[in-house]
Design goal:
single chain; about 425 residues; alpha/beta; Aspartate Aminotransferase, domain 2; Aspartate Aminotransferase, domain 1; 2 domains; seven-stranded mixed beta sheet; two-stranded parallel sheet; 14 helices; globular; binds pyridoxal-5'-phosphate
Length: about 425
């Protein structure tokens, strides 16, 4: 018989673009006893979570709640609920997660039109606006912070262009929410999808989303109430044809925002069973964000970024991509010629317990990615990572300016920016 040992995860310094380290307060929240999902005490916590999500998404939207599942579930929920088969969906792609939007939109039956940029760069908003004018899409979907390339896409003006032409503007803010400004209302975004395991520093498992009345109007047209949840009158109405079924009902049940919003509304119409411990975790994670203050939190992320970047450059390493549009929470480093990137990553983990990431597709083996997100985004972690990276690179025979990286980072901390 196999004897399985007690769970005892090794201590780690997680410097990837997600998942990242979790504040002990969040871990503690996850260990509290379960409440029933319709217990008023629990529904009260759900409402508080909605209120805090509105603040973090910077929106007055009524709907701001988590979908159960990783961030991709939020993306799929928004796209499957909004895309009717045959809808034209415009996706400007500048990295792996743009391709994910394309892939999901296609599976929803959309006619997808892409605009493409070389990985490492972003679009000028005018290029996207011209695309919207040329293709007249029903939906424009784009990634705000593309973790695969470490770029931040400027979004100004795109929402206004969408409104002019009656398109919905959908944004993947999975990697930016809680670390970089995501101004949902100011940027006229109709639906935003966030992630928990990055700048919010909560484990993966929920996907906060928010959407406005324009998006809600579209999904309500496609709403179907489950037969088993209908009242006798509703069921009789359906049998007699008085409540017609929509031409294009939302194709997923689990990810159907029209049903999910009923569950998150005072009606509390039963859908799935809420992931209680994850909800506790998200609530605590959001409380931490708001206690710190959004602007202060963004400033903390920028400061750690400056120190990390100064250290990397002083060591003699090169940053990848267009510097004007670098994501403040991800640094992409070109792997020096002749160095085995995977061997460096595994020595960092094995000798120092520090995890950094590689990348995907064409960038696999070409860059390392270091995240400075949420609870992992600290002076201690940045200094440890720089020191360890220098040591590991020297072991690999790389030419680095020994000692310079840490000094440069410490100079940034000394002046505080
Ligand atoms: C920008 C972006 N979008 C979407 C995802 C998918 O998120 P998940 O792995 O939580 O489903 C990620 C994950 O890394 C991401 O960085």
């Amino acid at each position: 018989m196999t004897i399985y040992k007690d769970l005892s995860p090794s201590p780690r310094t997680i410097m990837t673009p997600g998942p990242v380290e979790v504040d002990p307060r969040v871990l503690r929240a996850m260990s509290y006893p379960i409440l029933g999902q319709f217990d008023p005490e629990f529904t009260g916590l759900m409402n508080e979570t909605m209120g805090m999500l509105r603040e973090v998404f910077m929106t007055g939207n009524q709907w701001a709640y988590p979908v159960d599942g990783t961030s991709r579930s939020g993306i799929e929920a928004v796209l499957v609920s909004l895309i009717e088969p045959g809808d034209v969906v415009l996706v400007p792609v500048y990295g792996r997660f743009g391709h994910l939007l394309v892939e999901i939109a296609r599976r929803c039956g959309a006619e997808v039109i892409t605009l493409e940029k070389e990985w490492g760069s972003v679009f000028a908003p005018e290029e996207i606006i011209s695309g919207i004018r040329a293709h007249r899409p029903a939906i424009v979907a784009i990634v705000h912070g593309e973790t695969s390339t470490g770029r931040l896409q400027p979004l100004d003006g795109i929402g206004a262009a969408c409104r002019e032409l009656d398109a919905l503007f959908v944004v993947d803010a999975v990697a930016t929410i809680g670390g970089v400004r995501v101004a949902t209302d100011e940027w006229e975004i109709d639906a935003v999808m966030g992630g928990t395991q990055k700048c919010l520093s909560v484990p993966a498992g929920l996907a906060p989303v928010t959407y406005n009345d324009r998006a809600e109007a579209k999904l309500l047209k496609r709403k179907v109430i489950e037969r088993g949840l209908m009242t006798a009158e509703e069921a009789a109405g359906r049998m007699s044809g008085a409540s017609p079924t929509p031409d294009f009902p939302i194709q997923s049940n689990y990810l159907d925002l029209s049903q999910l919003q009923d569950y998150w509304s005072p009606a509390r119409l039963n859908h799935h069973t809420e992931a209680t411990s994850m909800l506790y975790a998200l609530r605590e994670g959001l409380r931490l964000v708001l206690e710190e203050g959004l602007e202060q939190r963004f400033a903390r992320h920028r400061l750690q970024e400056s120190a990390l970047v100064a250290g990397i450059e002083a060591m003699g390493l090169r940053l990848f991509g267009d510097p004007a549009h670098k994501m403040p929470v991800v640094a992409c480093i070109e792997i020096p010629e002749g160095i085995d990137g995977e061997s460096v990553r595994s020595m960092l983990l094995g000798e120092f317990g520090i995890e950094i990431a590689s990348s995907f597709g064409a960038l696999k083996g070409r860059i390392w990615r270091i995240g400075t997100m949420g609870y992992s985004c600290s002076k201690r972690n940045v200094l440890l990572t720089l020191g360890a990276l220098e040591a590991v690179l020297l072991r690999h025979g790389a030419k680095v300016d020994a000692g310079a990286g840490l000094q440069a980072a410490m100079d940034v901390y000394a002046i505080g920016r």
